[in-house]
Design a protein that fits this description.
Blueprint (H helix, E strand, L loop, with lengths): L1 H6 L4 H19 L12 H14 L18 H5 L9 H23 L8 H12 L9 H15 L3 H15 L13 H24 L15 E2 L5 H7 L7 E5 L2 E5 L3 H25 L7 H15 L8 H12 L8 H20 L1 H6 L2 H29 L4 H23 L21 H6 L13
Antiparallel strand pairs: 1-3, 2-3
């Protein structure tokens, strides 16, 4: 019974109850039974997505539509509501988005059942998603997040599964490619990266042959401005109160700043993204120590960096960070607790600025600018802290010592737990080895590719 409690999911019924209550509230919001102040967040589904659906069912991508900026697999979530013909398009989409949310919850709940795992990740998802409000069910990002979460959790034991899911996720919305960043060197990296490349090539090739316009996404965002909620937009939020002659208007599907020096700020944001990429490559080359949680930590840091430095920080981007952060916290000794808490706080502020206070953000008044400074400041702080912790735990001068200490502590806990489970054992003081030498307790870890909290072993390809 003691082992069952240790390996179970503490508070699973409470988490399920909270999930049901909060998701019911979100569903009532998108169905407009409950009224949410601010702009209608469901209009993207009823107008834009539905319009894309009509074009896609004719056998082509929305060529010439500047709001279509996505890889070819993005057609699947847009077309998916057609599988529920007994519902209207918006209602079918909301149901499918809720189902994707449930899949993420189920994956995290299953993953935390075992030694060295924690239910904290489940609670991050259960409580973090409603902080963003009804936007979650009104965008297909929750579906992409479900694929990325599945890739990270499957990749702990199956490198090729990681590769397939990473490639599919990247063809939905690019960013899931970062789940490959933290794979262990050697065979796991070769298997996952090669599988991802082959899968992406096959899917892209098929889309290019049979669906015109499938590769237009590669240049679709070339002429975008700076979106009003982004980090770079703070320059113009302040500048327009001091004589800046520009404007705020709908452009490329989002509300952006257009006018003098916008291109310069946009170029600076892209330069920051390039620097972030360079730092990630350097980390990949220099990392000496990897634990089971390192792939999730690396993916979380990478997506956090690119989200924060982007010319566009749409509210739904926070769903990506919540999903990856939740996976990080399924590991009991996860190093991203504080950065994930900062992301949770930023998510709550995001709800205040969109949709609740979006009019203030567009107007650039004191309340709107304050909300943006707070939200973007939290994201910048999360970037710095998460990047420092990732580097320190894998590259820093004492990384190997810390990893060895974690592995030793995990092994001791495992031996004590198994000794307590032996017939006639009286507790942790029961013998941990017999005449034939050390117990076979380490065998499950060798088969699964990881110890409870220890250094990552080679997962099966």
């Amino acid at each position: 019974m003691r082992a069952a409690r240790e390996n179970g999911f503490p508070g699973r019924w409470a988490a399920l109850a909270v999930w049901c209550l909060t998701r019911t509230a979100l569903l009532l919001c998108v169905l407009k039974v409950l009224t949410v102040p601010g702009p209608d967040v469901t209009s993207d589904v009823s107008v834009i997505y539905h319009g894309w659906y009509d074009v896609l069912t004719s056998g082509t991508f929305p060529v010439g539509d500047v709001t279509w900026q996505y890889p070819p697999a993005a057609a699947l979530p847009v077309l998916a509501p057609g599988a529920l013909p007994f519902l209207s398009y918006p209602h079918a989409f909301f149901v499918l988005a809720l189902l994707a949310d449930a899949v993420v919850y189920g994956l995290l709940a299953y993953a935390c059942r075992g030694g060295g795992r924690s239910a904290a990740g489940v609670w991050v998802w259960v409580c973090g998603v409603p902080l963003l409000g009804p936007t979650v069910l009104s965008r297909y990002d929750v579906m992409v997040t479900a694929v990325a979460v599945a890739a990270l959790l499957a990749g702990a034991r199956r490198a090729r599964s990681l590769g397939v899911l990473a490639a599919f996720g990247a063809l939905l919305k690019v960013w899931p490619v970062f789940v490959l960043l933290g794979t262990p060197r050697g065979r796991p990296t070769r298997a996952s990266w090669t599988t991802a490349a082959v899968t992406a090539a096959v899917l892209l090739g098929g889309a290019w042959l049979w669906l015109p316009g499938s590769l237009d996404f590669l240049t679709a965002q070339r002429d975008r401005g700076t979106e009003v909620e982004s980090l770079g937009a703070l320059v113009f939020q302040f500048a327009r109160h001091h004589g800046w002659q520009g404007e705020v208007r709908l452009n490329y599907g989002s509300v952006e700043f257009l006018g003098p020096h916008v291109a310069l700020v946009s170029d600076a944001a892209q330069a920051l993204s390039v620097l972030a990429l360079g730092w990630l490559v350097l980390w990949r080359l220099r990392a000496r120590v990897r634990t089971p949680g390192t792939p999730a930590d690396a993916a979380f840091v990478a997506v956090l960096l690119f989200t924060t430095t982007s010319r566009v920080i749409s509210p739904q981007y926070m769903v990506w960070l919540l999903g990856l952060g939740a996976v990080c916290l399924t590991y009991r000794r996860g190093r991203m607790v504080a950065p994930v808490c900062l992301v949770l706080a930023a998510t709550a502020v995001t709800l205040l600025e969109f949709p609740l206070g979006f009019g203030h953000v567009v107007a650039g008044d004191t309340l709107g600018v304050t909300l943006l400074v707070l939200r973007n400041g939290l994201l910048v702080a999360a970037c710095g802290l998460a990047g420092w912790r990732l580097w320190r735990s894998t590259v820093g001068p004492r990384a190997e010592e810390r990893a060895a200490g974690v592995a030793g502590a995990a092994g001791a806990r495992g031996r004590h737990a198994r000794a307590a489970a032996l017939p006639g054992a009286q507790g942790p003081s029961a013998p941990s080895s017999g005449p034939s030498g050390p117990p076979a307790a380490s065998e499950p870890s060798a088969r699964s590719g990881e110890g409870p909290d220890g250094v990552l072993g080679p997962p099966r390809a």
